[in-house]
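Researcher: Predict the fold of 14 kDa phosphohistidine phosphatase.
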Amino acid sequence: MCSQTRAAALMANIPRADIDPSGVFKYVLIRVHSREKGDNSEIDIVRGYGWAEFHADIYDKVSEELEKGGQLDCECIGGGRIQHDPQDKKIHVYGYSIGFGRANHAVTTEQLKAQYPDYEVTWDNEGY
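Model: C-alpha cells for 14 kDa phosphohistidine phosphatase follow.
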C-alpha cells in the first residue's frame, strides 16, 4: 500500500532548479507546499530567467502552473540574481529582490549544485 499523497507525488517530479542556460538574470526561491489535509510536505525550488523584468514575473508564472491542479500551494521566500557561465562551468548567486527580499542563497546554491554537479556554484549577499 502506498502512503504517498498526490501532492507529494507531484512534488517528487518538480525539478528543484530551472534556470536559463547562460547570462545574468533574476531568480526566485519558491516553497511548494501540499494543500492536502494531514500532508505537510514541502520542497524549495529555484527558478531564474532572463525574460523576467521583475522577480514577481517569474513567481507569478511558476506558481500559476504549479497550483493549477489544486493539490499544491506556492510561496515566494525571496529572490536575487544568478550569473550563469556555462563555458567556465560557474554559477554565482547574489543580490536580492525588492519585492520578495533576499532569498537564502545557501539553499539556492544547494539546489543548483544538485542540478549542476560539475559546476563551481558560489554565492554572496553583495549587490542587487
